[in-house]
Amino acid sequence: MNPALLRKEVQRRRTFAIIAHPDAGKTTLTEKLLLYGGAIQLAGMVKAKKDRKTATSDWMAMEKERGISISSAALQFEYKDHVLNLLDTPGHEDFSEDTYRTLMAADTGVMVLDAGKGVEAQTIKLFKVCRDRGIPILTFINKMDRPTKDMFVLLDEIEKVLGINAIPLVWPLGTGPDFKGVYSLAEKTLYLFDKTPSGSKKPSFKISGAMDKTLDENYDADIVQRFREDIELIEEGLTGFKKQEFLNGQCSPVFFGSAVNNFGIELFLNEFLDLAPAPDHLPLLDGNLLDPVESPFSAFVFKVQANMNRMHRDRIAFIRVTSGVFERGIQAIHNRLDKPVKLASSFAFFGQDRNTVDIAYPGDIIGVINPGTFQIGDILSEGKAPDLRPLPVFAPEIFATLSCKDTQSLKGFKKGLEQLAEEGILHLFQSKTIGSGSPIVGAMGRMQFEVFQRRLTDEYKVETNLNPLPYQVSRWVTDSDIAKLPSNVNLATDKNGISALLFETEWDMNYFSKNHPDIRLKEHPSQV
Ligand code: G4P
Fold first, then answer.
1. CATH number, domain at 57?
2. How does pLDDT run across 468-479, given as a tens digit for each residue?
3. 80 and 208 both lie in a single domain
4. Mean pLDDT in residue range 78-99
């Protein structure tokens, strides 16, 4: 492809993820963004909310209804000649590895806060992942129509708790029941709020500034006075917004609105297109950069999903294109297997629908059929694989043995274990020294176990028993160190046959290390 054309395609792409504590409004915002992009016609398509209330997680509710959230790794839509790839960050209460890895595929984060609650536990964790990657983050303060915290308290919370400068680009006129609209500081335009799900029908209008007389004519004196005081404070106190500082992850531009009323979103979206970076050069392990335009096709697998469609029972690997052009049927080198693979079937997913993707560009997310060859972190490329930074793998912190209730279902049990472990929902070990020979599963949180068991039942018709084990720490060891191990260790092998030691506490592991300095314990199997 002509590099100028490819550059143009790259420039118009924005690949991002919404990060939010459950209930802040992530799904509602997603839905409204899709409405703007024309990807859906009606509000309410993204999820059926009633189901969700009774479910313990989005995942399980989605499992019931097979809605968008589960079966889409990313939603693509066009808006104002831009192509937006919105990555789906699973909204588990439990913070899972899945979420981490999805964020690895995003170039920008959109942090949604509930104006009444501010920065919450999950916000902090998700923010940290974005921060560690150095990706820029925009903030959308949602639910301005409900009772809110003080706006300056909210900004202060972002700065103190998250450690990033929060710089408002718009400012609310009134809050909660008195919420009248938002004022764009740059445009000097007041956008008027209308409490209606389809979005504001009220006009926006330019004013000369906070002192404009129109405000006095139309709104209560106390609301106007408060607004003027706020604007004065902002103009005096808050340092000006600098795009480069935002791109460096040093400050976050702040917007206010009400997702459910479709208010403040268009303004946000327009600024987002302007501010959020297009897919850029990626840092490589050797210190070089991967040029998205000049380098041949490359992509990495960040998510693997089994049983995308119950009828087909197929497994899909989701890849993010990092450079060059993907064309359906392309012959790529699979870096881990060191062999060529033909990517003949490639799809974009939207709920139950899938569409064949013939061509994709850097920033795009596509699903390719996974006959069991792709794992999270694999790199596919034309020619030599770029040395992309490895995706994080987290050492599990809780363990259990998992057994099949009915020996008749053993075949399905084995298949389910293998396929679901491939998705990275949890870690699978085979014990060498512990228990009855049942497989050991390891996870970061209990929810992962629940989801795993539930999926084994639903998708593989296998009922299981879970027996918690007392371990909390796992460390991988090289084959050459195995001979040096004492006999009283808890040794297991992971799904790739790499040996791991399980310890009950961090203290036990440190004690072991001290007594066996010649045995190198690795936090990550790739270090072995
Ligand atoms: P999540 O994906 O982040 O978990 O949040 P979600 O969008 O599901 O929103 C959580 C709840 O907050 C929903 O109410 C949603 O309607 C509501 N909500 C979202 N944005 C706003 C807003 O700007 N103002 C107000 N007042 N509420 C908002 P729900 O009761 O769970 O569902 P529903 O019965 O209202 O549909």
1. 3.40.50.300
2. 999 999 999 999
3. yes
4. 79
